[in-house]
Amino acid sequence: MAAGPTTAEQGGTVKRRGPSDRQPRPEGARGRFRPLGLLPVLVAAGVLLLAGGTVWALYGSTWFRVEAVKTSGTAVLTPAQVEAVAAVPVGAPLVTVDTEAIEARLREELPRIASVDVFRSWPHGIGLKVTERKPVLLLDKRGTFTEVDSAAVPFATVTTPPRGVPRLVLDVAASPSLRRFDADRLLAEAVRVRSELPDAIAKDTRVVRVSSYDSVTLELTRDRTVFWGSAEHGPAKARVITALMKATPKAGHFDVSAPSAPVSSGS
Protein backbone atom coordinates (compact mmCIF):
# COMPACT_ATOMS: atom_id res chain seq x y z
CA MET A 1 0.00 0.00 0.00
CA ALA A 2 1.56 3.27 -1.13
CA ALA A 3 2.12 6.14 1.37
CA GLY A 4 0.04 9.32 0.89
CA PRO A 5 1.55 12.45 -0.61
CA THR A 6 3.40 14.82 1.67
CA THR A 7 2.00 17.95 0.05
CA ALA A 8 -1.60 19.04 -0.46
CA GLU A 9 -3.12 18.24 -3.79
CA GLN A 10 -5.69 20.61 -5.29
CA GLY A 11 -7.10 20.09 -8.78
CA GLY A 12 -4.27 17.81 -9.74
CA THR A 13 -1.63 20.35 -8.96
CA VAL A 14 0.79 20.28 -6.07
CA LYS A 15 0.81 23.39 -3.82
CA ARG A 16 3.94 23.83 -1.82
CA ARG A 17 4.13 26.08 1.27
CA GLY A 18 6.39 29.12 1.01
CA PRO A 19 7.57 31.88 3.35
CA SER A 20 4.36 33.83 2.79
CA ASP A 21 2.30 30.95 4.23
CA ARG A 22 3.94 31.09 7.69
CA GLN A 23 1.94 32.44 10.66
CA PRO A 24 2.97 36.03 11.56
CA ARG A 25 4.82 36.44 14.84
CA PRO A 26 3.01 38.57 17.44
CA GLU A 27 4.07 42.18 17.36
CA GLY A 28 5.12 42.23 21.06
CA ALA A 29 7.47 39.33 20.65
CA ARG A 30 9.73 41.13 18.21
CA GLY A 31 11.21 43.58 20.80
CA ARG A 32 11.03 41.39 23.86
CA PHE A 33 14.81 41.23 24.33
CA ARG A 34 15.48 44.76 23.19
CA PRO A 35 18.20 46.53 25.31
CA LEU A 36 16.93 48.74 28.18
CA GLY A 37 18.40 51.92 26.81
CA LEU A 38 19.71 54.98 28.65
CA LEU A 39 16.52 56.29 30.29
CA PRO A 40 16.39 53.88 33.30
CA VAL A 41 20.10 54.40 33.86
CA LEU A 42 19.66 58.15 33.89
CA VAL A 43 16.69 57.88 36.29
CA ALA A 44 18.69 55.68 38.68
CA ALA A 45 21.63 58.07 38.55
CA GLY A 46 19.31 60.99 39.26
CA VAL A 47 17.85 59.24 42.31
CA LEU A 48 21.33 58.51 43.68
CA LEU A 49 22.42 62.10 43.13
CA LEU A 50 19.29 63.41 44.88
CA ALA A 51 19.79 61.09 47.85
CA GLY A 52 23.45 62.00 48.12
CA GLY A 53 22.64 65.70 47.92
CA THR A 54 20.03 65.38 50.64
CA VAL A 55 22.45 63.59 52.95
CA TRP A 56 25.11 66.21 52.31
CA ALA A 57 22.65 69.08 52.91
CA LEU A 58 21.47 67.60 56.24
CA TYR A 59 24.81 66.45 57.60
CA GLY A 60 27.65 68.14 55.77
CA SER A 61 26.44 71.59 54.78
CA THR A 62 25.91 74.68 56.94
CA TRP A 63 22.32 75.08 55.77
CA PHE A 64 20.54 73.10 58.52
CA ARG A 65 22.56 73.60 61.68
CA VAL A 66 21.40 74.64 65.16
CA GLU A 67 21.68 78.40 65.56
CA ALA A 68 18.98 79.21 68.14
CA VAL A 69 17.09 77.63 71.07
CA LYS A 70 13.65 78.96 72.04
CA THR A 71 11.93 78.07 75.33
CA SER A 72 8.23 78.57 76.07
CA GLY A 73 5.81 77.69 78.87
CA THR A 74 7.98 78.61 81.86
CA ALA A 75 6.46 80.32 84.91
CA VAL A 76 8.74 79.82 87.92
CA LEU A 77 11.71 78.53 85.97
CA THR A 78 13.48 80.89 83.59
CA PRO A 79 14.29 80.10 79.95
CA ALA A 80 17.98 80.44 80.83
CA GLN A 81 17.68 77.73 83.52
CA VAL A 82 15.93 75.36 81.14
CA GLU A 83 18.35 75.96 78.28
CA ALA A 84 21.39 75.50 80.52
CA VAL A 85 20.19 72.02 81.51
CA ALA A 86 19.02 71.16 77.99
CA ALA A 87 22.57 71.76 76.67
CA VAL A 88 21.46 71.82 73.04
CA PRO A 89 24.57 71.42 70.82
CA VAL A 90 24.57 74.74 68.96
CA GLY A 91 26.32 74.41 65.63
CA ALA A 92 25.53 70.72 65.22
CA PRO A 93 23.49 69.45 62.27
CA LEU A 94 19.83 69.84 63.23
CA VAL A 95 19.02 66.29 62.19
CA THR A 96 21.55 64.82 64.66
CA VAL A 97 20.12 66.46 67.80
CA ASP A 98 18.89 63.76 70.22
CA THR A 99 15.57 65.30 71.32
CA GLU A 100 14.61 62.35 73.53
CA ALA A 101 17.86 62.61 75.51
CA ILE A 102 17.27 66.33 76.06
CA GLU A 103 13.71 65.67 77.31
CA ALA A 104 14.93 63.01 79.74
CA ARG A 105 17.70 65.27 81.06
CA LEU A 106 15.30 68.14 81.68
CA ARG A 107 12.78 65.98 83.57
CA GLU A 108 15.52 64.43 85.69
CA GLU A 109 17.44 67.57 86.61
CA LEU A 110 14.48 69.95 86.90
CA PRO A 111 11.74 68.15 88.87
CA ARG A 112 9.51 71.21 88.53
CA ILE A 113 9.01 70.22 84.91
CA ALA A 114 6.02 67.91 84.53
CA SER A 115 6.53 67.44 80.79
CA VAL A 116 8.58 68.95 77.99
CA ASP A 117 8.40 68.70 74.23
CA VAL A 118 11.71 69.14 72.40
CA PHE A 119 11.28 69.66 68.67
CA ARG A 120 13.23 70.77 65.61
CA SER A 121 12.25 74.15 64.19
CA TRP A 122 13.61 74.06 60.66
CA PRO A 123 15.91 75.28 59.31
CA HIS A 124 18.00 76.47 62.28
CA GLY A 125 16.20 76.10 65.62
CA ILE A 126 15.34 73.82 68.55
CA GLY A 127 12.16 74.46 70.52
CA LEU A 128 11.62 73.58 74.20
CA LYS A 129 7.94 73.62 75.20
CA VAL A 130 7.77 73.25 78.98
CA THR A 131 4.83 72.40 81.26
CA GLU A 132 5.62 73.11 84.92
CA ARG A 133 4.10 71.35 87.90
CA LYS A 134 1.71 73.51 89.94
CA PRO A 135 1.57 73.16 93.72
CA VAL A 136 -1.75 72.28 95.34
CA LEU A 137 -0.35 71.73 98.84
CA LEU A 138 2.76 72.75 100.78
CA LEU A 139 4.43 70.37 103.19
CA ASP A 140 5.55 72.51 106.11
CA LYS A 141 9.07 71.49 107.23
CA ARG A 142 10.20 73.96 109.88
CA GLY A 143 10.80 77.04 107.82
CA THR A 144 10.87 75.47 104.38
CA PHE A 145 8.02 74.26 102.25
CA THR A 146 7.92 71.33 99.86
CA GLU A 147 5.57 71.88 96.96
CA VAL A 148 3.26 68.97 96.10
CA ASP A 149 1.38 68.78 92.80
CA SER A 150 -2.01 67.30 91.90
CA ALA A 151 -0.42 63.87 91.36
CA ALA A 152 0.90 63.90 94.97
CA VAL A 153 4.46 64.39 93.70
CA PRO A 154 6.75 66.52 95.95
CA PHE A 155 8.83 68.42 93.43
CA ALA A 156 10.51 71.50 94.93
CA THR A 157 11.50 73.06 98.25
CA VAL A 158 11.03 76.78 98.73
CA THR A 159 11.53 79.19 101.64
CA THR A 160 8.72 81.55 100.60
CA PRO A 161 5.37 79.77 100.19
CA PRO A 162 3.37 80.59 97.05
CA ARG A 163 0.24 82.59 97.73
CA GLY A 164 -3.07 80.76 97.84
CA VAL A 165 -1.61 77.28 98.36
CA PRO A 166 -2.70 75.56 101.62
CA ARG A 167 -0.16 74.10 104.02
CA LEU A 168 -0.33 70.38 104.67
CA VAL A 169 0.31 69.21 108.21
CA LEU A 170 0.79 65.46 108.62
CA ASP A 171 0.15 65.05 112.34
CA VAL A 172 0.27 61.26 112.25
CA ALA A 173 3.23 60.29 114.42
CA ALA A 174 1.07 58.45 116.96
CA SER A 175 -1.64 57.37 114.54
CA PRO A 176 -2.38 53.63 114.39
CA SER A 177 -3.39 54.09 110.75
CA LEU A 178 0.32 54.29 109.84
CA ARG A 179 0.40 50.52 110.11
CA ARG A 180 -1.81 50.32 107.02
CA PHE A 181 -1.29 53.68 105.37
CA ASP A 182 2.20 55.13 105.19
CA ALA A 183 3.02 58.83 104.86
CA ASP A 184 2.99 58.68 101.04
CA ARG A 185 -0.51 57.20 101.03
CA LEU A 186 -1.73 59.84 103.50
CA LEU A 187 -0.17 62.53 101.34
CA ALA A 188 -2.09 61.19 98.35
CA GLU A 189 -5.33 61.21 100.37
CA ALA A 190 -4.75 64.83 101.38
CA VAL A 191 -4.22 65.81 97.74
CA ARG A 192 -7.40 63.96 96.83
CA VAL A 193 -9.37 65.95 99.43
CA ARG A 194 -7.85 69.21 98.19
CA SER A 195 -8.73 68.45 94.57
CA GLU A 196 -12.41 67.83 95.39
CA LEU A 197 -13.01 71.00 97.39
CA PRO A 198 -15.45 73.52 95.91
CA ASP A 199 -13.58 76.53 94.51
CA ALA A 200 -14.91 78.96 97.12
CA ILE A 201 -13.83 76.72 100.01
CA ALA A 202 -10.49 75.87 98.43
CA LYS A 203 -9.78 79.59 98.14
CA ASP A 204 -10.39 80.04 101.89
CA THR A 205 -8.47 76.93 103.00
CA ARG A 206 -5.25 77.72 104.81
CA VAL A 207 -4.29 74.35 106.32
CA VAL A 208 -5.11 70.72 105.53
CA ARG A 209 -4.40 68.73 108.69
CA VAL A 210 -4.18 64.94 108.51
CA SER A 211 -4.24 63.01 111.78
CA SER A 212 -5.08 59.61 110.28
CA TYR A 213 -6.54 58.07 107.16
CA ASP A 214 -10.10 58.93 108.26
CA SER A 215 -9.34 62.21 110.04
CA VAL A 216 -8.75 65.13 107.70
CA THR A 217 -9.56 68.64 108.94
CA LEU A 218 -9.59 71.87 106.95
CA GLU A 219 -8.65 75.12 108.64
CA LEU A 220 -10.26 78.06 106.87
CA THR A 221 -10.15 81.81 107.12
CA ARG A 222 -12.10 83.53 109.93
CA ASP A 223 -11.20 80.72 112.34
CA ARG A 224 -13.55 78.23 110.69
CA THR A 225 -12.87 74.48 110.55
CA VAL A 226 -14.31 71.68 108.48
CA PHE A 227 -14.00 68.09 109.65
CA TRP A 228 -13.85 66.17 106.37
CA GLY A 229 -13.15 62.70 107.72
CA SER A 230 -11.66 60.41 105.09
CA ALA A 231 -11.24 61.19 101.43
CA GLU A 232 -14.15 58.91 100.57
CA HIS A 233 -17.33 60.40 99.05
CA GLY A 234 -15.55 63.65 98.18
CA PRO A 235 -18.08 64.97 95.61
CA ALA A 236 -20.99 64.38 98.01
CA LYS A 237 -19.14 66.13 100.83
CA ALA A 238 -18.36 69.05 98.54
CA ARG A 239 -22.06 69.53 97.75
CA VAL A 240 -23.04 69.20 101.41
CA ILE A 241 -20.48 71.68 102.75
CA THR A 242 -21.52 74.25 100.16
CA ALA A 243 -25.18 73.97 101.19
CA LEU A 244 -24.33 73.84 104.91
CA MET A 245 -22.28 77.03 104.79
CA LYS A 246 -25.08 78.84 103.01
CA ALA A 247 -27.64 77.59 105.54
CA THR A 248 -25.50 78.48 108.59
CA PRO A 249 -23.20 81.31 107.49
CA LYS A 250 -22.23 82.28 111.05
CA ALA A 251 -21.17 78.79 112.13
CA GLY A 252 -17.53 78.22 112.98
CA HIS A 253 -17.30 74.45 112.77
CA PHE A 254 -18.68 72.10 110.14
CA ASP A 255 -18.66 68.30 110.10
CA VAL A 256 -19.31 66.55 106.78
CA SER A 257 -17.52 63.29 107.59
CA ALA A 258 -20.93 61.62 107.24
CA PRO A 259 -22.42 63.57 104.31
CA SER A 260 -25.90 62.15 104.95
CA ALA A 261 -25.89 63.70 108.46
CA PRO A 262 -23.85 66.94 108.36
CA VAL A 263 -23.46 69.15 111.44
CA SER A 264 -22.56 72.81 111.96
CA SER A 265 -21.96 74.54 115.27
CA GLY A 266 -20.44 77.61 116.93
CA SER A 267 -20.60 81.18 115.81
Task: Spell out the blueprint of helices and strands.
Layout: E1 8-10, E2 13-15, H1 27-30, H2 39-60, E3 68-72, H3 79-86, H4 99-109, E4 113-121, E5 125-132, E6 137-141, E7 144-148, E8 154-158, E9 167-170, H5 183-195, H6 199-204, E10 205-212, E11 215-220, E12 225-229, H7 234-247, E13 253-255, E14 263-265
Parallel strand pairs: 3-5, 6-9, 9-10, 12-13
Antiparallel strand pairs: 1-2, 4-5, 6-7, 7-8, 10-11, 11-12, 13-14
Structural account:
This protein is α/β, with parallel strands linked by helices and 267 residues long. Helix content is 29%, strand content 27%. It has helices spanning 27-30, 39-60, 79-86, 99-109, 183-195, 199-204, 234-247; strands at 8-10, 13-15, 68-72, 113-121, 125-132, 137-141, 144-148, 154-158, 167-170, 205-212, 215-220, 225-229, 253-255, 263-265. Strand 12 (225-229), helix 7 (234-247) and strand 13 form a beta-alpha-beta unit.
Portion in beta strands: 25-35%
What ranges have pLDDT less than 50 throughout 5 or more consecutive residues? 1-14
> Number of helix segments?
7
Look at the structure and give the mean pLDDT: 84
Number of strands: 14
Largest beta sheet, briefly?
9 strands, mixed
Radius of gyration: 41 Å
* First-last Cα distance: 143 Å
Largest sheet, spatial ordering of strands: 8-7-6-9-10-11-12-13-14
**Fraction of helical residues:** 25-40%
Q: What structural class do you assign from the helix and strand content? A: alpha/beta
Q: What form results from the Cα inertia axes?
A: elongated
Helix/strand order, N-terminal first: EEHHEHHEEEEEEHHEEEHEE
